[in-house]
Design a protein that fits this description.
single chain, 5-stranded parallel beta sheet, alpha/beta, Zinc Finger, Delta Prime, domain 3, Rossmann fold, elongated, 16 helices, Helicase, Ruva Protein, domain 3
């Protein structure tokens, strides 16, 4: 029976099949699926694990000896066979023979890359589809990747809000291994305490510390000299432009909400009073809201979206020149 990888956890709670085939090109998801099966098998008394790797000279006789013999260490055994080479005729026949009468005290875990269409037409594959479980793992789309990130963060005990999850997704561009490494890094730094945007940026930019936020403050302050200094430093340090765009977008979204409230009849003083700001940030916010109308702030957010298209490769342009132009425009100064 074929199931999606998202169904595996629920399946394992109900039963353990005699045979599993985990296949696909997404290495990390394959590893996670195998770990789940191994853990459940161990919980059910399959305490011995024998590993085999298919090669051109693979000893099928040795495999069947392990499948049929009793062990000195456990009466239940998990057999793992990694299909690193193409199955020849003798291999197809051997697997079919095993699947036609799988031992009661063994579980077979087959691990393969992306399956060729010809393999799915073999007798052993069709038999496995009736007696075992097949999980074909495909690359995740954007929505699935976000869901995977959220679930993985929760599993690791991380307290990340949706905004932080999205910035990690942007930076890792669907690379599951890179994303998992970032999550592990965050847990080592902050444990299960709630992670702020500032902590996230600090962790992801290493030595850049708070320079990205200083850049946004410099733009709202109208300090063109400081803007150029910070941008040059961020570029030299190899900071991801995605983080700069994210920091500006985060600030602009807050400013748009405040400008919308002012347009709706609230005073600037009332709007500022409802927010808590650090240090001189209140003065920077006040200056920006006095200089820009709601539509102008919305246009700047659209400008950021154009820069984001360049980052993603959808549009060709000089990225750092665009960031410089945007930052100086935000600052609204020709100094």
């Amino acid at each position: 029976m074929k199931i999606a990888i998202q169904q595996l956890a629920q399946h394992l709670k109900k039963q353990l099949a005699p045979v599993y085939l985990i296949c696909g090109d997404e290495l990390l998801l394959k590893q996670e699926a195998c770990v789940s099966i191994r853990k459940q098998a161990e919980d059910l008394g399959f305490n011995e694990r024998l590993q085999f790797t298919l090669k051109p000279s693979f000893d099928w006789g040795g495999f069947f000896a392990a499948a049929n013999n009793l062990s000195l260490f456990s009466d239940k055994i998990l057999l793992e066979l990694s299909l690193d080479a193409a199955l020849q005729e003798n291999g197809n026949k051997a697997l079919l023979k095993y699947l036609q009468n799988p031992p009661n005290n063994k579980i077979l875990l087959l691990i393969a890359g992306k399956l060729e269409a010809s393999m799915q037409k073999t007798a052993w594959y069709k038999t496995l589809d009736t007696v075992g479980i097949i999980i074909q793992i495909w690359p995740l789309d954007n929505s699935q990747f976000l869901t995977w990130l959220i679930n993985t963060a929760k599993t690791q005990g991380l307290a990340l809000d949706n905004e932080n999850i999205k910035i990690i997704a942007e930076l890792t561009s669907g690379n599951l291994l890179a994303a998992k490494q970032e999550l592990e890094k965050l847990f080592l730094l902050y444990g299960n305490s709630k992670i702020t945007a500032e902590q996230l940026i600090t962790a992801l930019t290493d030595n850049s510390r708070f320079d990205i936020f200083k850049l946004v403050d410099a733009a709202m302050q109208g300090d063109s000299k400081l803007i150029l200094q910070i941008l040059a430093r961020l570029k030299n340090e190899g900071v991801e432009p995605t983080l700069i765009v994210w920091a500006f977008a985060r600030q602009l979204r807050m400013l748009i909400v405040m400008a919308h409230a002012i347009q709706g009849g609230k005073t600037l003083a009332d709007v500022l009073e409802q927010k808590k700001f650090w240090g001189n940030q209140k003065n920077f916010i006040k200056r920006t809201l006095q200089q820009y109308k709601l539509t102008e702030l919305q246009n700047m957010l659209s400008h950021l979206q154009q820069i984001d298209l360049v980052i993603k490769g959808a549009v060709t342009n000089n990225l750092w020149n665009m960031l410089e132009e945007f930052s100086l425009k935000f600052a609204n100064t020709n100094n």
